[in-house]
Specification:
This protein is an alpha+beta fold. The protein folds into 2 domains: about 110 residues, no CATH class; about 300 residues, Cathepsin B, Chain A, CATH 3.90.70. It contains 10 helices and 19 strands. Strands 9, 10, 11, 12, 13, 14, 15, 16, 17, 18 and 19 form an 11-stranded antiparallel β-sheet that branches. Strands 1-7-8-5 form a 4-stranded mixed β-sheet, sandwiched between helices. Strands 4-3-2-6 form a 4-stranded antiparallel β-sheet, covered by helices on one side. Strand 7 and strand 8 form a beta hairpin. Helix 3 crosses helix 5, helix 8 packs across helix 9 and helix 9 packs across helix 10. The N and C termini lie far apart (about 85 Å).
Length: about 475
Amino acid sequence: MKKNQLNLLSIAIILLVVSLSFLIYYQYSLNIKKQQEKYIFENFINSLQNLQNTINSIQGTYYIKVDIPNGVLLYANSTELIIQYDNNNYTINFHKNITLYNNQNVSFLYPNNYIYLVSTNNTVFITTNFQNSINIFNQYLPNGNLIYITPGNNQNSPNNNQNSQCLFTYNGQPSFFWGNVNRKNYLPPIGDQGECGDCWAFASSNGIASIYMIRNNEPNEGLQLSPAYLAIKCNNGYPNTPGYCSMNEGCNEGDPYSAIFFASQYGIPNDTGWNYYYSTLYNCPQNFYQSYPGDVCNFNYNGPTFPLYYPEGIIYLSENGPLSDQQIIQDLLCYGPLVAAGFLAAGGGSDPNTNPQPPFFQGHAMLLVGYDTQSQLCQEVYGTPDCWIFENQWGDITACIIYSTDGRPIPGPSTPNMCGEYYSNYQACSNAIGEPCGGVYWIQNGYMYVPFDQSPYGLTFPNYVIAIQNVTLSQ
């Protein structure tokens, strides 16, 4: 064989080998791609199957957005959603009428797209168009807020330590209480601030304790952290306190955000049984007569200093303005109990029923621990079943509290029914306390119930909301 023939044969062999290699690699790539597509589709089916239980069990109107893979065809048949993929059919039965919006009897979906499900009591509307989903939602829930339910991120457990994921996802629950989550209590005991106006320190310490118990799966522990530690050390009169504590005046009000931030840097110790708090701040006679700067009640902090709890990931949820009721509910479920503050009383005005004026104090801080949209107690007191549930710190009491226009709490009638009469009748309330009435609230076993729409002569509450994502312990 001639040399040039050998060269041509070598080139042919090389080309054949390259071609075979390319074909093998191409086939391998196709197999990998098919496996990936199959995996994505299986996740999509699993997501819909998980949603099947949610949609079948929850009343009300809500909105769900679901990632969907390429190459999927959707058909509706009565209560069944038929999904065709790779020449195979899969069926999900939602036990509600299925409607593909705008008569989309077949929908071809492109990569990285979504389907939008709007579930009402009787029908599940499905569309590939976002604006259509908005139109449907608004039709069935005027003035409502969209509720995003992302399949796969709903852990349905308060024991998930991944801060980027919600503890619970809102799926229409009519009520929720962090003191009873599957018969587990994740709340600290209710304290008693006495004559000290350090509600900001109590709300902060209780919030940190609660998130620690939730994130570390330690329910029913009744963890108590020290509000005295925050009220004294994160106070503008305490030696060498950080500058961000300058807004805090111990028993004369303060800022929860700065207190939680202080704890994130320096930690906060526990205070079992409130022993140190009772011995320092509870009965301090000069609480409201101090000149600042100055130590709280002339005490320096010399209480427990270990172990220390450090909050991590502090989110000022209301930084960009007031939150809607729906946003607060979703944040309460997602992050756990929220440190909240706001006005509980109005400051009078020409017509406080229709034009309430801000009172002469900065508000009250508490720990938002739940809500109830079917509360018989709230119906009796406020004429609405929709209430927030706050862990307060005035002791484990059951009472009607009437606020004056300068923010003084005054004991009210002993029954929810009579409390409700003062709530609904401004003049009767004012006559009962001998001065303009600023607000009426019911406290049950230490928990304050606040209606979503607030008192007819009160102000919006809460308007200052903080979430804590995690808490760690250092010995």
